[in-house]
Write a structure and sequence with these properties.
The chain is mainly alpha-helical. It has helices at residues 2-10, 34-41, 74-111, 119-122, 138-144, 163-183, and strands at residues 17-18, 53-54, 195-197, 206-208. The protein has a two-stranded antiparallel sheet with strand order 1-2. Strands 3-4 form a two-stranded antiparallel ribbon. Residues 169-182 have a biased composition (Polar residues).
């Protein structure tokens, strides 16, 4: 039962995909990839600020909330993923513009004389957000169980959508992988053992007590 529950929860998690991945159903003739979908919402977004990876919203194929025999609305699923990325990018751009205006105001106030309105009054800090009930996603639940590989965690913050940070993370991961493979050569394991780690094969799970518990070990 625990294994079946873990398999069901793991099916709800979808890792990020490259930004140029085609949409399952094109929105129009000119919107065929996730990058096109983001540009359709943010036409003035520079190419260097386009994220390299596209985080996908969690979705369970066995979702019973909309009915057992109801078809899955794939377009709505993709729109929800795009809207989340667009909101994060817009918030980051708004914060950058606010910071630039504040720095310009402080530079002008330093060279000007008089009792004008201070920059702190013109550009107050962000208002504290009201506390709300914490929502744990499926990926967080799998992460707590240690079933999500580090390289497949979703990008949930605006910093993770930064193309430069993503490029640095990919380079660091590739370098550490090469160093680990050089320091720790692969170990040949027997065919029949008490525990099978499937995380290296794309499955976020580790199975134990297999059916072939009485099979002989390899010499």
């Amino acid at each position: 039962m625990a294994l079946l529950s873990t398999m069901y929860v793991s099916l709800c998690y979808w890792p990020p995909v490259p930004i140029d991945t085609p949409l399952l159903r094109p929105w129009s003739e000119n919107v065929t990839t996730f990058a096109d979908a983001i540009l359709s919402r943010m036409p003035d977004l520079p190419s260097e600020k386009m994220p390299r990876m596209m985080p996908i919203d969690e979705h369970c194929w066995c979702d019973l909330s909309s009915g057992v025999f109801s078809p899955v609305n794939l377009t709505k699923w993709e729109e929800s993923s795009v809207n989340r990325v667009v909101e994060a990018l817009e918030k980051r751009e708004a914060d950058l513009r606010e910071m630039e205006r504040r720095e310009q105001c402080e530079a002008e106030a330093a060279g000007a004389k008089g009792n004008g309105t201070s920059c702190a009054e013109q550009f107050p800090g962000p208002a504290p957000r009201p506390r709300r009930r914490r929502r744990y996603s499926v990926s967080k639940f799998l992460d707590l169980l240690g079933l999500v590989p580090p390289h497949s965690k979703m990008a949930n913050s605006s910093d993770d959508l930064d193309p430069e940070k993503q490029h640095q993370d990919v380079s660091a991961n590739s370098t550490s992988t090469l160093q680990d493979s050089a320091q720790h050569p692969p170990i040949k394991l027997p065919w029949f053992r008490r525990e099978y780690d499937l995380r290296n094969f794309g499955f976020a799970m580790v199975t134990d007590e297999p059916l072939l518990t009485h099979a002989p070990q390899n010499p």
